[in-house]
Design a protein that fits this description.
Layout lengths: L5 E4 L9 H14 L6 H19 L3 H15 L6 H15 L9 H8 L4 E7 L2 H11 L7 E5 L4 H10 L7 E5 L2 H10 L3 E4 L20 E3 L11
Parallel strand pairs: 1-2, 1-4, 2-3, 4-5, 5-6
Helix pairs in contact: 1-2, 1-4, 2-3, 3-4
């Protein structure tokens, strides 16, 4: 840990609550379409639509809303009323306007860490939405740099490390997603700390246990202060 100069934090479900908002919207869609398809089948179909659209739309609430509408059209065989489309659009707007709920202890943890390290917010998703959430969160003051990308890959992390003018061994990533925040970071020779969130999107799940000298797992943000 003595080599660490920059600590990057994921945003959604690491700084603030996010995934539960999406799961709630999925459940509402399934409830609205029970006349056409059982809830579990509708949920699986929505996930398939999201995966198909991911390379085209990317991550975020707006792409999710488009997938909600497409899934509803498919589930109803094109028979859904315009009122349902309006409800889904309104749900998307409601999600964009949700108040920010900070992860417990994250504000004070960032406050302490910022005294000793350069802090970066490194997240993926829609630029406008993520910038809006960061401002609403009140956490912007802690960060030296903000990085919002379409996806988190080894290439993107290497680019970020170069931009920060450090080596991989001087970079630490903290996040809730093993797939996006941990594995690609470890693969480039940097450090990664995992703080799981109680709800994880199926697309971000990883099977198997991670064993790596640069990896650690914690249950809450404040525990970072015990090792950094």
């Amino acid at each position: 840990m003595q080599n660490i100069k920059v600590i990057a934090f994921d945003a959604d479900d690491t700084l603030w609550v996010n995934e539960t908002i999406f799961r709630s919207a999925e459940e509402e869609l399934c409830d609205l379409l029970t006349d056409y398809m059982p809830r579990e089948e509708a949920g699986k179909l929505l996930f398939d639509v999201e995966m198909k659209n991911l390379p085209l739309y990317g991550y975020g609430i707006k792409p999710f809303t488009l997938s909600l509408i497409e899934a509803a059209i498919t589930i109803s065989n094109g028979d859904m009323k315009i009122g349902l489309v309006e409800k889904l659009i309104e749900k998307g707007k409601q999600m964009l306007e949700e108040p920010i709920e900070l992860i417990d202890g994250i504000d004070s943890t960032l406050e302490e860490l910022s005294k000793r390290y350069r802090l970066v917010m490194a997240t993926k998703g829609d630029l406008l939405d993520q910038e809006r959430k960061l401002i609403k969160s009140g956490l912007e003051r802690h960060f030296h740099h903000i990085e919002i990308v379409s996806d988190k890959t080894e290439k993107q992390y290497k680019k970020l490390v170069r931009h920060l003018d450090i080596t991989e061994n001087e970079f630490l990533m903290v996040g809730n997603s093993l797939k996006s925040d941990i594995l690609p970071v470890l693969n480039i020779g940097a450090h990664a700390f995992h703080i799981p969130f109680h709800t994880t999107w199926a697309h971000e799940m990883v099977d198997g246990k991670i064993e790596h000298p640069n990896f650690r797992s914690f249950t809450r943000a404040s525990q970072l202060l015990e090792v950094l």
